Amino acid sequence: MDVKTIVAAGLLSLLLALPCAAEAGSAPVLNPFSSTAPANRFSAANFTLTGTMSGTLASQTVAATLQVAPADVGTKGVIYVMAKLANLWFFKEANGAWSNWSGGAFPAAYFQGVLASSYDIQIVDKLDFSSFPDAEFYVGYGLDQADMVNNGKYQKVSSPSVSLAGTWLLSPATDPAFFGAKSLSDLANLSLVVDANGTWTYPGFCPFNGTYAVSGNQVTLTIGSSAALAYCPGGPTSGASISASYTLANDVLTLTNAAGVSAVFQKSTSPIATLVGVWFLTSSNDALTFPAGSMIALDASGEYFNIEPNCVTLGNLSVSGTSASYTVLYSVPLPPATTCGAQQQMGSVVTMQYNLTGNTLTLQQGGSSGVFQRWGF
Questions:
Q1: What is the pTM of this model?
Q2: In the chain, N or C terminus with fewer CB closer than 10 Å?
């Protein structure tokens, strides 16, 4: 018996014996959606199917909601639930058993009777599909098999478009081995800024960025080219990629690689996280408030490190709306200066207005303004 057929049968807990005629390498490639002639045009295929696929490949749940076409509601018909595993097709029966389909008439339907307007269908619940990462699921209905096939009343089950957009902060629940690190302290204040257009940014002290793609419950992050990579020994390689399954629930994003190692991120609602990075002053209209050569380094916790020509300060930043306030916790004058300015003294609280556009940050205090560019971008 074909090994894949045996594994698939166990996976779906088949209650019926599978045919043994399909020896390894001899199983035909079947398609249950091949039209038959003549076509039976019983009614319009005006229906909708919405699906959800959740969990990891090792524990996957698939469900769907079928909205029957209005013209078919109240008529006698059938509903088929199908799974494709490595070119093998299985049909789910009303009692939950799965039958292997080897061509011809379909096995017993998932439902047979008078069609209602909608159905909630549990396809699989927390099953291990690690051996079948490309498994596909379909739901179809019709007045009979020919109606479903010939009029296209079937659809592949897929999750609705998932948006990973947002700023994500690394959680203590993360296994540092996901990033090849020895401890979480090596990853302190790691954050990812993800947009809705397929790109992401790590805006830290050694910044880099890239693209991502989502397919089912899998996400692939690819490292893009960045000027900073050349200055970051041991950092990521341009063009390298990380593939992982993901779960997203209650603003918690969990990525799990093929080795079962997970990285956990918490979605941030704080605008501070969007300001993380190293910022260099590029222009200023007031050399006293924003002196040339100024640099600000900010992490996701709000701690900042600021270097100006005459003084180095450390402190905390808070943000409310478009207003940013920093509190100086420590300051050291740089020779030849013997003291820091009034706004650089320990305990000083300074409030400014800010505007962030991409990787450009504008700070304004009264009539004074300074424009900063995030390092690496």
A1: 0.54
A2: N
